Amino acid sequence: MTEHAASPRRGDAPAAHAPAPQHVVETMTGAQSLIRSLEAVGADTVFGIPGGAILPAYDPLMDSAKVRHILVRHEQGAGHAATGYAQATGRVGVCMATSGPGATNLVTPIADAYMDSVPIVAITGQVSSKAIGTDAFQEADICGITMPITKHNYLVTDPAEIPRVIAEAFHIAATGRPGPVLVDIAKDALQATTTFRWPVEPQLPGYRPVTKPHAKQIREAAKMLVSAKRPVLYVGGGVIKARATAELRILAELTGAPVVTTLMALGAFPDSHPQHLGMPGMHGSVPAVTALQKSDLLFTLGARFDDRVTGRLDSFAPHAKVVHADIDPAEIGKNRPADVPIVGDAREVLADLIVAVQAEFDAGHKGDYADWWDKLDQWKRTYPLGHEPAPAGRLSPQQVIERIGQKVGPDAIYAAGVGQHQMWSSQFIRFEKPGTWLNSGGAGTMGYAVPAAMGAKAGRPETPVWAIDGDGCFQMTNQELVTCALNGIPIKVAVINNGSLGMVRQWQTLFYNQRYSNTVLHSGPDHDGIEPPAQGTRIPDFVKLSEAMGCVGLRCERPEDLDAVIEQAMAIDDRPVVIDFIVHQDAMVWPMVAAGTSNDEIQFAKGVRPDFGDDLD
């Protein structure tokens, strides 16, 4: 057996929720041992597709009363479904595939989970151990391929190792900084007879994630916070991963400091809260982007100074000192040096900070942010999020997405693909609770939304789940609607159909002289692609396609029909529903910081740069 380990991550999330099993020693095959191990760690759902090398595992899986297998239509769908399941439930997601192309089809969702710190375990079959390295049929070195994008991976050739490896894989995926773990098992190890022993003793002497922050650093951070004049609580997805949203709100309200939440942290702090400035970044709100730029203290919690947030790094927040708390020490100082580095789990960090800040208050030290809030409130009033109205009789995509959020409400789960519809969803849906927003933040994976929504609904069947997708993204993974229909997973899919690869088209409009090279999706030999084709020539017709896959297909083209169509979709609970929203193609995402430029160059709308009129400009 060979192993690979990457850096650890997040803290106290349990790998499973099953009661500790009694000591068991039995003789069985490696395949039976694998399924028994999955049962023992509490896995209840596996998304996958059988094939030759993994086939031995599928026979005992059929007999399991504890593990539900959902047969997907493509391995990429299995991986994103595992990610959606993990993000929605807080448990480890599981996907399974065979060797060679089955395993390599998991590479994209594994990379996606790695970038966004999502705990999944990917189990793949491998050719027999004696054939490894011979270029055997359907052989691929999936451990080598995924080494840079897994937190840890294993190649198992000894069936006796299976219980320990599975137990370790779930533990590693869920603790420290969460992430994907791959377990590749040779076919002969699955077929051989072995002795199953449980519980097992993990053998991870080098894996000790630090969760408790250093008290001196906490005290120093608290002093900086109460002495700052223009602080910002810069909140990343790590706060949600650590289940630390309650502590975040206590700290924010205790100090009165403004809060920004990154794309991965939406819902960590209520959008409706008066201290929330919105999302920072390339398409963030003007108050959020500007607050970071003009701050004198970035109080950073579970965020990684991503380039989409910082813009040109050397001009980012030039006046600010930095407190940076993260469970992964490799993130601290990676992009921006930290004046006070804090390694620890966000929940423990915040709990200790609350005590330390209160101690500063008790000693008579309390921050005065009145002047700062005067500026912030002025920016919020002057530069609110909004959008241009659609041409008469047409739907605007922002209007559609905002109305879905209003009608469906903050208790639902929303999964987005990547592109304009993703940004509009982040802007116009109000996120009030953690775990209600799923998207591909780091990797930007087109095709993420439908399978992620499927996984979320499988994990939380009582919760409404909506996929907000673009017509480009939808055509990458919509085959998983068949999986949803056959397995009783009634998600809703809103296709924001502008007939193009919208975000790429926006860049072509702004930076390529409106030369729309290969971004029009509906053009053909008899159509120039300038305007959407007539209804009879839609290629594909998403309503017909959805109906062919066992879903209810609806279409909405007029503003006056919007509410009725959304309500019609909401009333259907026995099948997936797809709504083809025909929107005008010239809508753009604003505000915007062009790639590679400074956040100081943010545009509120096309050609409109905010004028802050203060001495910090």
Distance between the termini: 59 Å
Average pLDDT, all residues:
93
- Please count the helical segments: 23
Extract low-pLDDT stretches.
Answer: 1-20, 524-529
Indicate the overall shape. Answer: globular
Our estimate of the beta-strand percent is 15-25%
The description of the largest β-sheet is:
7 strands, mixed
Number of strands: 21
Secondary structure class reads alpha/beta
Radius of gyration, in Å, reads 25 Å
Pfam families: TPP_enzyme_C, TPP_enzyme_M, TPP_enzyme_N
Keywords: Amino-acid biosynthesis, Branched-chain amino acid biosynthesis, Magnesium, Metal-binding, Thiamine pyrophosphate, Transferase
Pathway: Amino-acid biosynthesis; L-valine biosynthesis; L-valine from pyruvate: step 1/4; Amino-acid biosynthesis; L-isoleucine biosynthesis; L-isoleucine from 2-oxobutanoate: step 1/4
Domain Thiamine pyrophosphate enzyme central: 218-353
Concise overview:
Pfam families: TPP_enzyme_C, TPP_enzyme_M, TPP_enzyme_N. The chain has 617 residues and is of the alpha/beta class. 34% of the residues lie in helices and 17% in strands.
Describe what this molecule looks like in 3D.
The chain is globular. The model is unreliable at 1-20 and 524-529 (pLDDT under 50). α13 (307-310) links the parallel β13 and β14. It is α/β, with parallel strands linked by helices and 617 residues long. Helices cover 34% and strands 17% of the residues. α1 packs parallel to α7 and α3 (75-89) crosses α18 (449-459). The protein has a seven-stranded mixed beta sheet with strand order 1-7-8-6-5-3-4, sandwiched between helices. The protein has 23 helices and 21 strands.
